[in-house]
């Protein structure tokens, strides 16, 4: 069996010193583990403490801890990081322990938890433990619950993880700037009984967004709504890993929304039940079936389904502009506009000019359009049948019959049984049948009224006096 330390070394995760804290302080701090890879890291079983079934953080990892007299101790380091959003694009973000989002924290209901937070940012920070029941002074709102954590300082948060569920952590100091720069992370409190609501695969990730202008590396932190990159755990398609499962696995997917808008998340090929919210687990009698669930700002949801249909099934936000990279909100609609003469004239002045959107946007991913450095095309990613024409909040649930339990390696594209793929019709097309009224006016025509002979009646004398 691979040890926890060996596992993290192999995954591009290393332990670093406390850095900016004093030598005396560093001697009593748990090691600060940092990650250098954007790949999904399936965690090993817990090395000590109460048993639990670990989660898999999509394009992320779980933070190791040390036991100190029965207390689980973690060390988070708030710091500038470089995050690869997808191959070909990196961003200068702020995060924790080398990554944005930071590592997932996993504990068990009833654990006493102590988190050391070292600030390596150029400004004050704090951490709010979103959704947790804890002492008021540990809630992390600067000025209200605690002084700010100044640059170079380390603060300690300590509380008991009182209720199981799905949570998040993020700053409550200069929140607009720090969250727009990517400071956030996932928290899972497992139930005391590892047999409670068991699943075979348990995925977690955060929904986030950025406003990064083409050719630049740093998000615009003052953007309120018009973000151009929408991400699962700060990764955009085609850089998002698939969720790999075995056929007939019971699968749980947990997600938290720290963007500035809601997201209707939709799965293909399966229906699911909503089994958890911000407030905790939903009793079986109160769950409801869906194929898409809307997640509002600041909310968390857990869904579960039986992966009984083999294949490569899309999982994505159903706001269509959230599945496009570098989405331009001010791009005009040019469908139906003939660019041929205009394009020829513009090419004399701008040799690299290309027509955009004349026949829709579906062929944009195939165009070899010159892009600024560190910029992704709006739609990219290749599937077994060509361009997927998606970006942003999109990934694939890969259901395989022979995928070994606990194996999360990508099995490649699905091999469709013969006769199960849509195909082009090669025969003759019948003439379209039209009703007689097709294409007519919106109101039916009235038959002309027959000619009617009208005769005037002379009024009587009585009527004439009025």
Biggest sheet features: 8 strands, mixed
Q: Please, what is the oligomeric state?
A: single chain
Total helices: the number is: 5
Can you count the beta strands? 26
| CATH class (first level) name of the domain at 4-306 | Mainly Beta
Measured as a percent range, the helix fraction is under 10%
Ends: how far apart? 113 Å
**What is the radius of gyration?**
29 Å
CATH topological fold name of the domain at 4-306:
Immunoglobulin-like
Q: What is the annotated CATH architecture of the domain at 4-306?
A: Sandwich
CATH H-level homologous superfamily name of the domain at 4-306: Cupredoxins -  blue copper proteins
Q: Roughly what is the average pLDDT, rounded to an integer? A: 85
Structural classification: mainly beta
Q: Looking at the structure, what is the overall shape? A: globular
User: Low-confidence segments, ≥5 residues, pLDDT <50?
Assistant: 1-10, 15-26, 359-367
Beta fraction: 25-35%
Spell out the key features of this protein:
466 residues, mainly beta, Immunoglobulin-like, 8-stranded mixed β-sheet, 5-stranded mixed β-sheet, 5 helices, 26 strands, 31% strand, globular, disordered N terminus
Question: Can you walk me through this structure?
Answer:
- The chain is mainly β and 466 residues long.
- The protein has a domain at 4-306: Cupredoxins -  blue copper proteins (Immunoglobulin-like), CATH 2.60.40.
- Helix content is 7%, strand content 31%.
- The strands form six sheets. Strands 3, 13, 14, 16, 18, 19, 20 and 22 form an eight-stranded mixed β-sheet that branches. Strands 4, 5, 6, 8 and 10 form a five-stranded mixed β-sheet that branches. It has a five-stranded mixed β-sheet with strand order 15-26-23-17-21, with no helix packed on it.
